[in-house]
Amino acid sequence: MRANVMLKFVSNDPDQKQTPGSVNKLFRRIFEYIWQNKFIFLAALGIIFCLSILQIIIPQIARYSIDVVIPEKKVNLLPWIAAAILFVAILRGVLDFSRLYLMSLFGQKIVESIRNDLYQHIQKLSISFFDNQRTGDLMSRLAENVNAIGSLVSSDVSEILVDSLTVLAIVTYLFSADWQVALLLILTWPLQIYITQVFSKFIQGAYRDVEDQAAAINNQIQDTISNINAIKSFGNEKYEIDRFSEQSRNYAAVNIRAIRLWSIFVPTIDTINIIASLIVLVVGSWAVIAGRLTVGELTAFFAYTNQVSKPILRFSKMMNVVQKALVSSERIFAILDTEPEVKDRENAIDLTSVQGRMRFEAVDFAYNQGETVLHNFTLDIQPGMSVALVGSSGSGKSTIAKLAARFYDPQKGMIFIDDQDLRDISLDSLRSNLGIVSQETLLLYGTIRDNIAYGKLEATDAEIEAAAKAANAHDFIMGFPDGYNSIIGERGVKLSGGQRQRLAIARVLVKNPQFVILDEATSALDTESEKLIQESLSKLLKGRTSLVIAHRLSTIQNADLIVVLEGGKIIESGTHAELIAKGGRYSSLHNIQFTQKSTLPEQTEMIDTNQNKINQIQAIAELA
Ligand SMILES: Nc1ncnc2c1ncn2[C@@H]1O[C@H](COP(=O)(O)OP(=O)(O)OP(=O)(O)O)[C@@H](O)[C@H]1O
Questions:
Q1: Which stretches make up the ABC transmembrane type-1 domain (predicted)?
Q2: Residue 387 phi/psi, 5° resolution?
Q3: For the residues 382-397, what does the mean pLDDT come to?
Q4: Nearest atom within ligand 1 for CA of residue 549
Q5: How confident is the model at residue 1 (pLDDT cuts 50, 70, 90)?
Q6: Which residue CA neighbors atom 16 of ligand 1 most closely?
Q7: How many other CB atoms sit within 10 Å of the CB of residue 411?
Q8: Taking a C-beta distance cutoff of 8 angstroms, is the pair 492, 438 a contact?
């Protein structure tokens, strides 16, 4: 399944060829969004139709002046003609304003629907989906790709509709006025279309490069800003600046190439249009001399020649926009079509009263096919029990926690809450009964109050304060000038590690779940913070069923059950006393950690052999 997801996204290469079938399907799907706003669209269409009629009327007024008013010296008609031109101009202005406004409204509504659908869907997707995604890529789908569709359906579609209707109306009129001159006018069209096609192929390629480079720059900015600590700690600022300058240079180069192509293309088409005008002038003048055309008709012909040349340029520009929008919609629908791997079953039940038992029965799990992480894992956690998972790095401790939270489903075996299969429980109700304090404390940009209330959005100030007090966080919060309203920066960067952990504990306390998953922090805190955190943790775990992923054995001696894992299998389990008495793996890990603790600098000389040191380092590395 994961492989499929990967393939799906790899296949979103913008260079991929779109088959007519896939293009039709994309248009159909975009049309579904258009149809949701059909009234605005139809109103805009009506206006567009009126605008194309007006485009024909103005040259006709000029023709009437030249052919009738001037030769017949009908001076009294001049004010009427002026009034007619003024009226048509104002009407055109009002209609154009309405068209622009309605089409922008229409585009914005479509963009809003697609963006919301996409965000909603991304929120529903399983963790496994995010394992394979780059944040920068998802962000570009939500922002640029959605806007590309918006720009197509708003301004560009309306322009192309105005253009098409205008060209159609003009050509019909010209043929009815003088088909021979009309034919000469459109004589250059095949050449213009051919040149446009050739150029658009190059221009599209150039724009693709521009997009690729823009994406590369975005990804680099996103990567480097979110990892600024790593860059600074390695002193790699210069390296990053050089890398960025190169990307920036490449970006400028592809942009310049695209502009160069446009700069050749536009004058070429202009020159052909001038040639077309010349043909119309020469042949039209000859037709006037021969008495087949009036001077006014020739003037109108000129005006129309000008009017039809603009759409041809715009059509070529449109081809780019359509291509861009198709690529964008393909990328968007690829996400919308991705089914969440973990989702509610039909008739999923809500957990109402929870006793608090959690049971794993013969669970097998692999993130990737064939790479088993857990094998035949069985564990029965009684209500209110605290179970600690111990084992070397990669033995599967966090994976068990992720399965309990149903971030993934096991391939074999079952997990139960009380007597209910986890897969039958609605995800909302499962997660509302579950609190997770993870190793890397996940705080959001905002105030301390908002971050604690994230556990229970409707929490009152009193509840938030009570939770903060229980988590030993109240005092340090009140130490900030703005107290609970202090802004803590992105990912809580303005707090110390211990403060972040206590906020995370307060957040779960305010949620008050029956089950708690605690991924213990690996880094040791100073004794004072450690004591404060241990205190708040014992309040958090009291009376709840808990699964504690332990990295330091000193913190789990009071657990009701300690499970030792190795390679995704339980190798021993029991209480601290039982496991120590047994003298197995736990006992040896404990001895090593204990020895390590007692070998503080002043006691280092007590370690008599180098082998002892090596053992300690290995054991610490395993446990971290
Ligand atoms: N999202 C993932 N995709 C693929 N493999 C993963 C993923 N997460 C973990 N693994 C693999 O699963 C195995 C178990 O990882 P897990 O995180 O459960 O170990 P752990 O015991 O919690 O380790 P640690 O103590 O270092 O946190 C490891 O081999 C790891 O590489």
A1: 42-324
A2: -110, 130
A3: 90
A4: 22
A5: very low
A6: 396
A7: 12
A8: no
Q: Is the CB of 596 under 6 A from ligand 1?
A: no
Q: 596: which residues sit within 8 A by CB, 6+ positions away?
A: 616, 619, 620
Mean pLDDT value of segment 371-396? 90
* Residue 568 CA, closest ligand 1 atom number: 14
Q: Is the pTM of this model over 0.90?
A: no
Q: Which residue owns the Cα nearest ligand 1 atom 12?
A: 373
Ligand 1 contact, 396 CB (< 6 A): yes
Contacts of 272 (CB under 8 A, 6+ apart): 188, 191, 192, 195
On the question of pLDDT at 61 being above 50, the answer is yes
Residues 490-517, mean pLDDT to the nearest whole number = 83
Kindly report the backbone phi and psi dihedral angles of residue 226, in degrees, each rounded to the nearest multiple of 5, phi listed first: -75, -15
Q: Which residue out of 128, 398, 400 has the highest number of ligand 1 atoms within 8 Å of its CB and is therefore the one to mutate?
A: 398
Give the Å distance between the CA of 395 and the centre of ligand 1. Answer: 7
pLDDT above 70: residue 2 = no
Enter the DSSP assignment of 68: I
Does residue 128's CB lie within 6 angstroms of at least one atom of ligand 1?
no
273 Cβ closer than 6 Å to some ligand 1 atom: no
Is 392 near ligand 1, meaning CB less than 6 Å away? no
Find the range with the poorest average confidence among 177-181, 299-303, 338-342.
177-181
Ligand 1: distance of its center to the CA of 536 in Å?
28
Return the HEC string of 306-348.
Answer: HHHHHHHHHHHHHHHHHHHHHHHHHHHHHHHCCCCCCCCCCCC
Would you say the CB of residue 394 lies under 6 angstroms from ligand 1?
yes
Output the CATH code of domain 19-336.
Answer: 1.20.1560.10
The Cα–Cα gap between 523 and 512 comes to: 26
C-beta of 399 in contact with ligand 1 (< 6 A): yes
Atom nearest to 623 CA in ligand 1? 25
Nearest atom in ligand 1 to 128's CA = 1
pLDDT tier for residue 406 given thresholds of 50, 70 and 90: very high
| More reliable by pLDDT, 406 or 205 | 406
In this predicted model, which residue has the larger pLDDT, 312 or 161?
161
- Weakest-pLDDT range from 155-159, 286-290, 455-459: 155-159
- From atom 7 of ligand 1, which residue's Cα is the shortest distance away? 367
What strand order describes the sheet that includes 412-417?
372-381, 358-366, 412-417, 420-421
Query: Of 599, 548, 553, whose CA–CA distance to 580 is shortest?
Result: 553
Per-residue pLDDT tens digits for 521-573: 655 566 666 777 777 788 888 889 999 988 777 778 888 999 999 888 999 99
The answer to which of 73-87, 101-115, 129-143 has the lowest mean pLDDT is 129-143
Sheet holding 515-519, edge to edge: 434-437, 515-519, 545-549, 386-391, 561-566, 569-574
Q: How is residue 309 written in tokens? A: 């040349």
Token pair recorded at residue 502: 């206590």
pLDDT beyond 50 at 114 = yes
pLDDT at 608: 35
Quick check: CB of 132 below 6 Å from ligand 1? no
Task: Describe the crossing of helices 295-336 and 78-124 by its angle, rounded to 10 degrees.
Answer: 10
Q: How far apart are CA 174 and CA 227, in angstroms?
A: 65
